[in-house]
Design a protein that fits this description.
Elements: E1 19-22, H1 26-37, E2 42-46, H2 52-56, E3 72-73, E4 76-77, H3 89-103, E5 107-109, E6 113-118, E7 124-128, E8 131-135, E9 137-140, E10 147-148, E11 162-165, E12 179-183, H4 187-198, E13 203-206, E14 216-217, E15 220-221, H5 222-228, H6 264-269, E16 273-275, E17 278-282, E18 285-288, H7 292-317, E19 339-341, E20 347-352, E21 356-357, E22 376-377, E23 380-381, E24 386-388, H8 405-426, H9 430-436
Length: 437
């Protein structure tokens, strides 16, 4: 347990706050910063401790995929000597906790929120492990990584094959001897594959439909080009895919060892065994869809498309930038493998890196669609008094990241401030209340 805020239990003595913030990560801390600027009393309830997910839910060599200059918590930008670098796990924890120490939010650690309901008087009731709180506004800043996804058919595998989710992976040494199968090629999957490969482990990888991105192109970090091009300022309402953009898998690359792109074809040449998406499991045999080459091609198409977008920007702006050779596919599967006996192949561990599901069952309000996803406009729920923060594409690409959290947090604080002002203007004055009583 962190000791950053172990002296703030007195905040629990008050049970009636205008605003209750659920979650003490970078999202909850950011909105707390702006609520304090508005002079709005509130409390931040954190189930574990500030920056817990960064400290405890990442592998040992984890680092940011986006460069340090994108770390822009409210009035607290990255101030180190390596803006083009990528913070390691411990450095990320230090950054978030340093922001908390500077801003001193009214956060209480070790308090879990169990239920949010509507009271008869119209206010919200927040039931927690430290008692019930009455409030007019609840900001859900818990993120969307609550429930690790492992497919039901994984239960069919023999017990002697170890199965873990990516959230539980720490290092190659923690796994049994033998070969490892990583399922999923989002950012976590490809980075875990590389971590194992660099450690000398024999790795198998099930390749999904995730896109990939260049790291450095034409003499500059691709994210810097994209920033100049306005890509990160594109809002969800202007995105060509609309709300479907929220369902897209992030482009994969890595910040490891100074940052580089990941071409799975190169890893195949180095001995990593590639397969298509997992279709089913029977005993120790895994069956795959015949989509390996398509998934590789689709990822490369996105990769090349980003390069072409940058080329057009450079040409339009008349920028003097070095020319790079065209992309070449260095490997392709001669014949796709559609089944694999894991035990016969010497696979002793399977790592599921296929994502998470949010868990909002504790919010007993009509705020969700048929799939259980929250409905909102820039984080403002259709349910009065409920808000969401820190989710991917809440408003822009940076909404779920250090880059865009400040803008989203400021917006929600402004909305709440205006609603509080409007409520105060329409409520009876104390003298009038006394005369009417």
């Amino acid at each position: 347990m962190s000791t950053l805020f172990n002296n703030q239990e007195h905040l629990l003595e008050e049970k009636d706050y205008p605003v209750v913030v659920v979650g003490g990560g970078q999202a909850g801390l950011s909105v707390s910063y702006y609520l304090k600027q508005h002079g709005i009393e509130h409390i931040v309830l954190e189930k574990k401790f500030v920056a817990h997910s960064w400290a405890k839910d990442r592998w040992d060599t984890f680092c940011l995929v986006t460069p340090n200059w994108q770390c822009r918590l409210p009035d607290f930008p990255y101030a180190g000597d390596d803006p083009e670098g990528f913070m390691l796990k411990d450095q990320i924890v230090e950054y978030v906790q340093a922001f908390a120490l500077k801003t001193r939010p009214p956060v209480v650690e070790g308090v879990s929120v169990n239920q949010v309901t509507r009271q008869k008087n119209g206010d919200l009731l927040v039931a927690t492990s430290a008692g019930d709180f009455s409030t007019r506004h609840v900001i859900v800043a818990t993120g969307g990584y609550d429930m690790p996804i492992i497919p039901p058919y994984a239960e069919r595998l023999p017990k002697r094959i170890k199965q873990i989710h990516s959230v539980d992976y720490r290092n190659p040494e923690s796994l049994p001897d033998g070969e490892v199968l990583v399922v999923g090629t989002g950012q976590s999957g490809v980075q875990l594959m590389e971590d194992l490969h660099l450690a000398g482990r024999k790795v198998h990888l099930c390749v999904g439909p995730a896109p990939r991105s260049p790291r450095v192109y034409r003499g500059r970090e691709s994210t810097a080009w994209l920033m100049d091009m306005g890509v990160y300022g594109l809002t969800i309402d202007r995105h060509p895919l609309g709300d479907r953009a929220r369902e897209r898998t992030n482009h994969y690359m890595t910040g490891r060892d100074g940052g580089h792109e990941i071409d799975l074809r190169q890893f195949a040449r180095q001995g990593v065994k590639l397969y298509g998406s997992v279709a089913d499991i029977e005993g120790s045999t895994l069956r795959f869809l015949p989509d390996l080459e398509k998934n590789l091609d689709d990822a490369d198409e996105v990769y090349v498309g980003i390069r072409k977008d940058i080329d057009r920007h450079i040409a339009a702006q008349g920028i003097d930038a070095p020319i790079e050779p065209e992309f070449v596919k260095v490997w392709r599967p001669e014949q796709e493998v559609l089944s694999l006996d894991a035990e016969a192949a010497g696979i002793t561990t399977i790592i599921w890196a296929i994502g998470f599901r949010p868990d909002y069952r504790w919010i007993e309000l009509p705020a969700f669609d048929g799939r259980g996803h929250p409905k909102y406009d820039r984080g403002v729920s259709n349910v009065l008094g409920l808000y969401f923060l820190g989710l991917p594409w809440l408003n822009t690409w940076g909404s779920g990241r250090f880059l865009g959290i400040a803008e989203d947090a400021a917006h929600l604080a402004d909305v709440i401030a205006k609603r509080e002002q409007a409520a105060a203007a329409t409520s009876p004055q104390p003298a009038l209340e006394e005369a009417l009583s």
